[in-house]
Write a structure and sequence with these properties.
Number of domains of chain A: 2
Low-confidence stretches of chain A: none
Distance between the termini of chain A: 59 Å
Oligomer: homodimer
Largest sheet of chain A: 7 strands, mixed
Largest interface: A-B, 44 and 44 residues
Number of helices of chain A: 18
Strand order of the largest sheet of chain A: 1-4-5-15-10-11-14
Strand content of chain A: 15-25%
CATH class of the largest domain in chain A: Alpha Beta
């Protein structure tokens, strides 16, 4: 590796933390379809959303015309703790792959939540505080979002109640302890503390919980407690808005060195990091100012873009939340328990779904073992232990770089490295021991859950 | 928190990664006492050290006159992946403590080894590679050093054999899996792969291992295998030399903003991070160019500076390594198993011991529960989950800042934040559950192990 004009890590200064979020929807001709009230099947109004979400966040959720929304100074102050995040030129990986491609990654893992989730958690906590609320509730699976939210609430002195899927609460105690360090109360779900929890426990006494059930409990507590609201870490428009700092910084850092990506790659679960990373680039593409290949990478075990259908569906398995139009496998689809990473959500952000539907981006799916092979290859030369989720993007970035080796093209590749894998070592252990397997759902399985989609005229 | 001239994080540019290590011993009038051959009780010669350590490292170990030693370009290239590390102004902590003190910390945890250990691991791996060796061996307890070394060996394509204390291998599988991700072979110690391991297993079939035993196995394999040497992550002069990058960067970053610390604080186990952080500052003090209060913080459960004696002792509990003159509790001293952090070494680096003996630095000891209280307080406002080891320094930094609140003095405090606590969540859990206790050895216990020190005239 030789010294080069472009440093290994490009750090913007703290003054260059974005001053406004970029609202991708403002540049879309075909706006993402609105959330529907599951009872009336009419678009959800601000009034209907207000008992669940904070006022300012409802506004952001429904605003599809304002291009830039100012980031309050208090949030920018917090961002300064871990932003701007580095844009890294992967010199060592390029050398290892013997590729003429130039590979960059935006690394969002250098904060204690270990992921990009903190970008939206701090914004949501701020607006809750500003509204004079006492606290917020949320659900968490493995705990990435819950960790980020507990850090954000601790900073603003808000109470934070996290319903954690019981099986994760018991088997993955470490993120739980990080949340407790930040003062959050973490309740295994289903719990005896809510009506819905008691009902589920009475019906299924041995249940180890599900994300759908945890959502139901969190929403119940938020809507029935004075001074509480519910917050969510992905899928929603507001979350993509907050995550736009990833793309804004990446673009600014590249422009400093006159670099333009040819290909932009991100892993896709609910779509929050992908939407954030590609946002400002996609904006240019929508406005006809530039062209980029944009690739969403999803796990072959949960392939909503590549094998799902574009339709209205519930966001939660409990079917209590509004309906969203999205690429979905059906809210009753259950990804293989063997799948180690996140990215297990059955649907995809409405915004990204619309863009994919309109042909502005590609999607591909990758299998688990090849994802861990990419993760290990990356870790060994770049020195970062990547999260399994992020490693889906690494897999495709490596594949594209290898294609360049074949063709001799010097393409510039940018991908999102959303987080670290410190809490995923049980999965790495399985991989090392040859105990990991790939699971790809059959056409029949997917058809069966899609057949159960709600009927929306 | 208001915008200030001094940013939250001070990043030097990659060109400012130090070009030479600073060798503190060159500025010491009273040089640290030499290692002694345990057989002859004469100073170890380069020839005697060569079968165990790499040639270039033996030179560095014995060199107490060269003030600066060039850092080879290959090591600087690797340093660029995670260095310069940020110097952080702890604005949020200051505000929380309502102190007029200005608090800075040098954060060494933003790399996958999670600690400062990588600074020396990459240097030691480089010299092994340069000497044409096939690989290196080492021991590791909880796995921090082993992780750093496996990353370094992976980068240079060296084989890496880590003997991991059996109880940690079984109970703390996560760092083991990080090491395996980097291609290291990790062997639970004692093992059937060495003479000393087999002997110990025959004698104590149920043993869960010890660091001393793991050292013995690693040294045996290094000295009996063609093309292998043994490497060590703390205590040695060469390690303090490599770690001087911490202090050099901290000093350069502070000088950019015309800041001079009044108090410099570091946690102290074997002394590697403390020696690195204080190195260049201590140099100025030794040369009479500046004055600083320098405080070593050790756990009350393993208080080698504050309650040990200054004498020749074995570095390992197996008593096979050379004798070092140091503040020691005796190599037979066993710290309480309850103590969660590292810093469990019975002795202290010879260099630091001499400086402490000559009155150039202070030492203090702190109890475990108060350390975790400081860790939690720090995490909640500064957003970093600190390692228990690092939190010893945080405890004293907070205490000094609170004294400033009493007196109104605007002192500038610098401390070393050596690593993250992602792999220490079992200890955090104990703390949250009120199951943590403090253990302070009795005078009788310490006297008993000191009575067993080797007799050196």
């Amino acid at each position: 590796m030789s010294e080069s004009k472009i440093p290994y890590k490009i750090y913007l200064s703290e003054d260059e933390v974005p001053k406004a979020w970029y609202n991708l929807r403002a540049d879309m001709k075909n706006k993402p379809a609105p959330l529907l009230n599951p009872g009336t099947l009419r678009p959800m109004t601000a009034e209907e959303l207000a008992p669940v979400f904070c006022e300012e966040l409802v506004k952001q959720e429904l605003d599809d015309t304002t291009q830039y929304i100012d980031i309050p100074q208090e949030i920018r102050d917090f961002y300064r703790m871990f932003r701007p995040s580095p844009l890294v030129r992967a010199y060592c990986l390029e050398e290892k792959l013997k590729t003429p491609a130039k590979i960059y990654y935006k690394f969002e893992g250098n904060n204690t939540s270990g992921s990009h989730k903190l970008n939206s958690a701090i914004a949501q906590a701020y607006y809750a505080k500003k509204q004079g609320l006492k606290g917020v509730t949320t659900e968490t699976g493995a705990g990435q979002w819950g960790t980020a939210l507990s850090m954000a609430c601790s900073y603003f002195g808000l109470d934070c109640k996290v319903f954690m899927v019981k099986v994760s609460y018991e088997q993955k105690p470490f993120r739980r302890e990080v949340m407790r360090t930040y003062g959050a109360s973490v309740v295994p779900s289903p719990s005896e503390t809510t009506n819905v929890g008691r009902k589920i426990l009475a019906e299924f006494p041995g249940t180890t919980g599900s994300l759908g059930c945890a959502i139901s409990e969190a929403v119940e507590v938020a809507t029935s407690s004075e001074g509480y609201r519910y917050v969510l870490g992905s899928v929603l428009n507001q979350v993509l808005l907050h995550q736009s700092v990833i793309g804004l910084e990446a673009k600014a850092a590249m422009e400093k060195y006159n670099v333009k990506p040819d290909i932009i790659i991100g892993c896709a679960g609910g779509g929050s990091n992908l939407g954030g990373l590609i946002g400002p680039f996609m904006g240019e593409k929508l406005r006809g100012e530039a062209d980029y290949r944009i690739i969403a990478v999803e796990p072959a075990s949960c392939p909503s873009f590549t094998r799902g259908t574009y339709a209205y569906d519930f966001c939660d398995t409990g079917m209590i939340c509004p309906l969203a139009k999205m690429y979905t496998l059906g809210s009753s689809f259950i990804p293989s328990a063997n799948h180690a990473g996140g990215l297990r959500f059955h649907g995809m952000s409405s915004t990204l779904s619309q863009l994919y539907h309109d042909g502005y981006m590609e999607a591909t799916s990758v299998e688990q073992i090849s994802v861990f092979e990419a993760a290990e290859q990356f870790a060994r030369v770049e020195g970062i232990l990547p999260a399994p989720e992020s490693s889906h993007a690494i897999r495709v970035a490596i594949d594209e770089a290898l294609k360049c080796r074949e063709t001799g093209e010097e393409k510039t590749i940018l991908f999102g490295l959303t987080g670290t894998g410190y809490f995923d070592l049980v999965a790495y252990e399985k991989f090392h021991n040859g105990e990991m397997s790939d699971y790809i759902p059959t056409d029949e399985e997917i058809a069966a859950s899609i057949a159960r989609l709600p009927k929306v005229e």
